[in-house]
């Protein structure tokens, strides 16, 4: 029986996550599919992982030149797809077993050019953040609505009409947002299954995700879906309700690109994932940095300015924030982090610092409220990786709205307030 749906998984050097995403395709109740796993010039064991499934419906293709985005593998997949419909799955995302059957049934019922499932997007571990996409106000798609490719199925005729995925360096918005906007502008009919069947673990929301390559979240989600899909969906919907009640629900929509520059989102996402770093220079004596230029993978809130203390930034809503300093530090140096302790927390017991995953014991010094300095000595057998990555782990985040019983209008979940970071190599 020929494939009705061609599933495309774009992947780059993350075979552990890829194994789970492929397994969630194999577990689909809809059986008329082919799976095209397209590597973006992979150099790891992804090909072996694909071959390990021993399923003739799964094909491996590896691009000879890296595109640096899902757009390249997606477009290659479109050229070799045999199915009437195209579906996409991120290599670090997971599907409910009825995902494809639900999408196909909705397309056949509505005749839509593009169908999406309800998708829960999980914030960084420990953040409690969630986003729910694929539910349309009054049941109709609006031009600002967003849903990720992992929840999407479209007809082959759609891409023949609107063209392929575009290269990220050539457009101002993320490639998935641009694709969706172009589909809507073409007059495409867009429908939703109104069923939660897609679960996304956004790599751009997880600092250094491609450096650390943790897959616990995906493996646990797949195991829950295999054990009891109905219970898993109910638990995920309850988590979304908790997120809404606790001011942790993210409103996702297509971005305003009126002031954006081509490739801007792309470069920021690469930095968040740990795939691109700004140039670093050797540490000469003492140097100080503010954190207002750090990109945010949900580990930093927006920069702010105080008339006395200058620029500062709150960590959060992720309990782990990373300050990336463009410096080549020596094997021995001292580091000072000035924080503004406006929440009056016990810094010594609530904060953990580390560099290259090695704990960095510190002492606390106060120069007058609210300024507090955390001072530590890094003594290694070799220099830390450049650029230097300082991880700040906060044991507890606080929301001023709840912390002050609704008396504060600030609904952000905050960790600690960082004023500046100083390194001394002498």
Give a structural overview:
With 426 residues, the protein is of the alpha+beta class. The protein has helices at residues 15-26, 46-52, 71-80, 99-110, 156-162, 175-185, 209-212, 216-227, 229-245, 264-273, 347-350, 400-403, and strands at 5-11, 33-39, 58-62, 85-88, 94-95, 114-122, 130-133, 152-155, 190-200, 281-282, 286-289, 304-306, 310-314, 320-325, 327-328, 332-340, 351-355, 358-359, 363-366, 371-379, 388-394, 417-424. The protein is globular and about 75 Å long.
Strand % is 25-35%
What gap, in angstroms, lies between the N and C termini?
71 Å
The total count of strands amounts to 22
What's the CATH H-level superfamily name of the largest domain? Spore Coat Polysaccharide Biosynthesis Protein SpsA, Chain A
Q: What class do helices, strands and sheet pairing give?
A: alpha+beta
Rough outline: globular
Residue stretches low in confidence (pLDDT < 50, at least 5 long) are none
Helix % is 25-40%
């Amino acid at each position: 029986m020929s494939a009705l749906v061609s599933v495309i998984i774009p992947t780059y050097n993350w075979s552990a996550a890829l194994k789970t995403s492929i397994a969630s395709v194999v577990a689909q109740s809809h059986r008329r599919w082919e799976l095209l796993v397209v590597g973006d010039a992979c150099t790891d064991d992804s090909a072996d992982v694909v071959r390990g499934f021993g399923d003739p419906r799964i094909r491996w293709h590896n691009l000879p030149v890296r595109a640096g985005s899902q757009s390249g593998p997606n477009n290659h997949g479109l050229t070799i797809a045999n199915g009437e419909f195209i579906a996409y799955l991120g290599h670090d995302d997971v599907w409910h077993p009825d995902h494809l059957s639900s999408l196909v049934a909705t397309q056949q019922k509505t005749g839509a050019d593009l169908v999406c499932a309800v998708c829960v997007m999980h914030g960084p571990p420990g953040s409690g953040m969630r986003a729910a996409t694929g539910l349309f106000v009054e049941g109709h798609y609006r031009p600002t609505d967003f849903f990720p490719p992992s929840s999407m199925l479209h007809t082959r005729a759609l891409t023949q009409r609107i063209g392929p995925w575009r290269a990220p360096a050539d457009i101002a918005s993320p490639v998935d947002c641009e694709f969706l906007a172009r589909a809507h502008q073409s007059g495409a009919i867009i429908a939703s299954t109104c069923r939660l069947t897609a679960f996304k673990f956004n790599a751009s929301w997880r600092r250094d995700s491609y450096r650390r390559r943790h897959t616990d979240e995906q493996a646990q989600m797949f195991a829950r879906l295999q054990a009891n899909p109905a219970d898993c969906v109910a638990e995920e919907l309850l988590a979304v309700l908790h997120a809404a009640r606790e001011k942790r629900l993210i409103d996702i929509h297509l971005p305003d690109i009126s002031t954006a520059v081509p490739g801007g989102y792309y470069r920021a996402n690469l930095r968040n994932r740990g795939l691109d770093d700004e140039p670093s220079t050797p540490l000469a004596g003492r140097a100080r940095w503010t954190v207002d230029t750090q990109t945010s993978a949900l580990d930093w809130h927006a920069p702010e300015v105080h008339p006395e203390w200058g620029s500062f930034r709150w960590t959060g809503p992720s309990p782990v924030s990373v300050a990336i300093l463009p410096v080549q530090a020596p094997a021995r140096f001292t580091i000072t982090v000035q924080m503004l302790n406006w929440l009056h927390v016990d810094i010594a017991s609530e904060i953990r610092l580390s560099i290259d995953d090695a704990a960095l014991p510190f002492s606390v010094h106060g120069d007058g409220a609210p300024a507090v300095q955390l001072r530590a000595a890094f003594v290694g057998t070799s220099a830390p990786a450049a650029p230097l990555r300082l991880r700040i782990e906060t044991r507890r985040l606080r929301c001023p709205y709840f912390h002050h019983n609704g008396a504060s209008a600030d609904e952000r979940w905050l960790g600690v307030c960082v004023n500046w970071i100083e390194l001394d190599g002498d």
